[in-house]
Amino acid sequence: LWQQYQSKISDAASQKDEAALDDWLARAEATWLRYQEVDPMNDAMVAQMATLQITAGKRDRAWLYLSTALDRRPRDANSHYTLSQWYRNRGDNEQAQRWLASAYQWDTANPRWLYERGQLLGTMGRKEEARQLYQQIVDGQWANGLQGYVTSAKEALGRL
Hints:
The chain is mainly α. The protein is built from nine helices and no strands. The chain is elongated and about 55 Å long.
């Protein structure tokens, strides 16, 4: 369904057909609202609606949808991670790494956020920053179930 909305909205935007664009956005928003009644914590749907808004050229409205993930759980690392992934999927790695940094601020007991940010910084060519994050993981004290990140960070350090 969302792929169909994406296609219709993309076509209307490329043809600069404001009436069709508004109609398809209204349909998508009605579907989104209905879905929110059933599964209000589904951040994937938030990302879908933000993407549709961007496709339609409505950046401000895209942020309104994205921010709902933060509004619901502002101090939850996963909310920040959702935003990071959305920006990363759109090719905005700078924003993505910033949201990963804020995810770690809300969950300092989980090295996942450091590791994923290190990986992203490495792909951005910011190897020294990535190295610092990997070293922070190696030097840290983490719960037993999170020790895999230490091993992965050591391997990543060896590749830098």
